[in-house]
Amino acid sequence: MTNVNNRFSGAFVGNGVGLTTLNAANLTLGTLADARLSANVPLLSGNQTFASSNTFNGVASMTNVNNRFVGAFFGNGAGLTNIIVSSTNTSVTLAGDVTGPSGASTVARIRSVNVLATAPTTGQVLRFSGTDWTPAAVALATDVSGTLADARLSANVPLLNGNQTFTGSNTFNGATLMTNGNNRFTGAFVGTGIGLTTLNAANLALGTLPDARLSANVPLLTVSNRFSGAFVGNGAGLTNVTATSNLFGQFSSGSALNGLFVENTATNDGASALVGSAPATSGVTFGVFGQAASPDGTGVQGLAYGSTNGNSTGVYGQSISTNGTGVVGVGSAQSGQPIGVYGEADAPLGIGVYGLGAASSGVPVGVYGTVSGTNGYGLYTPNNLFVGGSALLGALRVSGGTIFAGTNTFTKLLMASGSSNAPAIAFTNSPAAGLFNPGTNILGLATSGTNRIYIAADGKVGIGRTPTANLLEVEGTASKASSGQWLANSDARIKTDVQNLDHALETIERVRPVSFNYTDEYRAAHPSIEDKKYYNVIAQEFARVFPDSVKESGEMLDGKPILQVDVHPAAIYAIAAIQELHGMLKAKDDDLAKLKEQNTALEKRLQTLEKVVNGLAR
Question: The pTM is what?
Fold first, then answer.
């Protein structure tokens, strides 16, 4: 059938190998074998190479981990994982704060602020100058805050609570106070020593003491000197001796008991074995002057022994000069116990030494005594010393039991240090109550033999304890007559940098209030503490919230300082937290009021709607 117009209806059966010009669109049955496909048709079971550009619009899942792709990906790569990026397989051009290709990018800005191209040097950091980021050193005053823990410091940093050894040469320009009496220094002091005290003259090995530092009692070679007193010895070489210097003199040597002995056996009233009178109304004159250079000698001795009754007087001196002295005794020996004036009276109303400064002006002295030795006494009594009422005393050194009666005025009163059991200044009826000196420049007040108040050299006061850290420290409890806190100056004019407290609730949540009992060891060291529940915070925890309110107490435990806290900041933050809570409650009240208004409006709309529905139902 060679006519191309032939047409057949039905189904062909048999070998159709010779059929040509078949239309693939008419294939409705069967499956075309892979072998009938051209080599350009990709097969699922074979390896394919797509040589041209292809577009896959559907979802393509490629699950074999050995898949490899050559070329560039375009589109959304959000689902890609395990991507390895390197300078050789990635090239990205950056913009904004970081510019240039990814392999050679430049950080030109940080948060839109320019970074200068200046190269940094060793130790510099990137700091904001106010306009640009630039290399600069760390500014401790502004860049650093908080407190660096001691453990983070090197061993070369000195600590205040440890023993330090400075091996290099150091210069301390500020005022340095070293209050421990055990301090020792090796080397030479340079600078002014005006504040040094208790210097030992025996240690002066260099230099010359200026004349101005010597007392007026030291003679100088460059000026005229006047020596008072009596010369003893051979005066054969003396010249220019004025007869009026001594109207009468006697020198005794050898075994004689008395250099001068005068006796008057008269029984008339007023009779005297020896009378000294210096009637001058000015200057420093002496009615009777005696001096003993021997270690146990007596300058002037008087003894009234003829009768044990009456008003006998061993030594009597009177001066009517404004600056005169009735009786002067000088014990000038450098050892022993020299006595300037010694008087004895055996009569019941007798007076061993009686001196009268009768002048109504100047500084008259009834009895004057002075010593040159360290163990001597200008005025000495082995028994109690009685000072009458309205007495005026200058510098007075008192040891032993001394009773002052009446009203007495002292320019200076020097006492022995005493102790808590035997205070230096005590009371007749309460000898274990009074003042004493526990150490240099330290004052103690004792009662019943126990130190109650301790005032340290630096002004710290301890009640029942020795103060170590605070200006006032109390061992045990303290109270006042009325309620209320202790007052503190809080005037607005004395404050600066005043700021409101924010996040007070968050801050207070970090504070842990606790109840506790003190340990047996701590109560043993502080007997006034009761064994009961106390309420406070833990200092170490409190320091994390308020570090400036925790400090060392001065007491030690296990080699470390015991910490103490000031909980006042927590109270102030608690007030701020209450205010924050009040603000939150007000806001919730406002929200609740709005909800109520909305609910009322909805109820009215519902009622209206119900009426409409009911009307339609009818």
Answer: 0.38
